[in-house]
Task: inverse folding
């Protein structure tokens, strides 16, 4: 049975899984900016989940819902086992990464290189679907290296949908695994949003979410004329204030908080709880760097956190003093 997009809360708008960025602290922060976006973990390998410290890797705050677990792996049995563990932890969706271009991922036979093995990806999806009751989705590229995106994307999409995938998240660039670094793969291959639009047109009953190079909520709204959902990546992390306009602009609902200063006030109890558990302040505040972009005092805010947040024993007063450097939580800080 094909899952209707309206049945997955938050699929209309989501924040991308980003390595080293979208950890549990980042996700709690983002949830205070938007009630409706679906949040994603960093990619976690099946091996780490099966054999590692599961609470450290998979534990999350209940406020994060709806939150999805992204897996990296290619062995169907391991994918099924890791997906079941994720479901038992309470994740609302399991996603398989078929888009990351890093050498480490390639060497492990997961990520974007799996675009060349659609049947194997489909086997993994089928195994996960047998193991869990939550939605299983695939995040992919439009192709890799010399593949023809018209053929490669359709082949992968139809294989995983036949295997039971509940939706496709498509980064609208090729990944060049031979010749480009992971960083270059985020910018150099040209974006081809029309290719994703054509995929959606060919799969009217399948949720298709677009990702890649989308600069803000206004652009997201434009894409929603053609696809079921939009996933925002670097723009959401580097300029998190943009997320304050997501609920009003995309869902017709008020933002959780009116200003970034209000968001930080709401964040303080969580930070205090984490500090009491031994978490270092910088592990949380490192996600706040772009919070006041374009606001008077933003540079002083960043500098104060950078200089003081890393110190041993740094407490909540450091964040309060950093916020005090911001002269005015200006209206432009919540623009789309």
Result:
């Amino acid at each position: 049975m094909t899952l209707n997009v309206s049945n997955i809360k938050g699929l209309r708008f989501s924040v991308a899984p980003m390595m080293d960025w979208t950890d549990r602290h980042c996700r709690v922060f983002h949830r205070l900016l938007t009630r409706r976006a679906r949040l994603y973990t960093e990619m976690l390998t099946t091996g780490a989940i099966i054999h590692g410290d599961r609470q450290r890797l998979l534990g999350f705050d209940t406020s994060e819902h709806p939150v999805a677990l992204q897996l990296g792996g290619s062995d169907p049995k391991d994918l099924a086992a890791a997906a079941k563990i994720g479901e038992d932890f309470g994740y609302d969706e399991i996603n398989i990464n078929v888009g990351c271009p890093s050498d480490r991922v390639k060497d492990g036979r997961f990520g974007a290189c799996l675009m060349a093995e659609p049947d194997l990806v489909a086997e993994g999806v089928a195994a996960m679907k047998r193991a869990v009751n939550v939605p299983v989705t695939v995040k992919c590229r439009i192709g890799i290296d010399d593949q023809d995106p018209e053929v490669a994307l359709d082949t992968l999409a139809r294989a995983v949908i036949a295997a039971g995938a509940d939706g496709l998240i498509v980064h609208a660039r090729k990944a060049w695994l031979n010749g480009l670094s992971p960083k270059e793969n985020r910018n150099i291959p040209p974006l081809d949003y029309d290719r994703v639009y054509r995929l959606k047109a060919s799969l009217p009953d399948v949720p298709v979410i677009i990702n890649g190079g989308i600069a803000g909520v206004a652009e997201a709204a434009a894409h929603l004329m053609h696809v079921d959902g939009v996933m925002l990546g670097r723009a959401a992390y580097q300029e998190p204030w943009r997320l304050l306009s997501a609920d009003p602009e995309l869902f017709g609902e008020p933002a959780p908080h009116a200003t970034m200063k209000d968001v930080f006030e709401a964040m303080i109890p969580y930070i205090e709880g984490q500090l009491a558990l031994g978490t270092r302040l910088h592990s949380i505040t490192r996600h706040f760097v772009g919070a006041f972009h374009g606001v008077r005092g933003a540079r002083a805010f960043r500098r104060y956190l950078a200089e003081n947040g890393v110190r041993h024993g740094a407490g909540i007063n450091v964040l309060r003093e950093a916020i005090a450097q911001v002269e005015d939580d200006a209206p432009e800080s919540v623009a789309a």
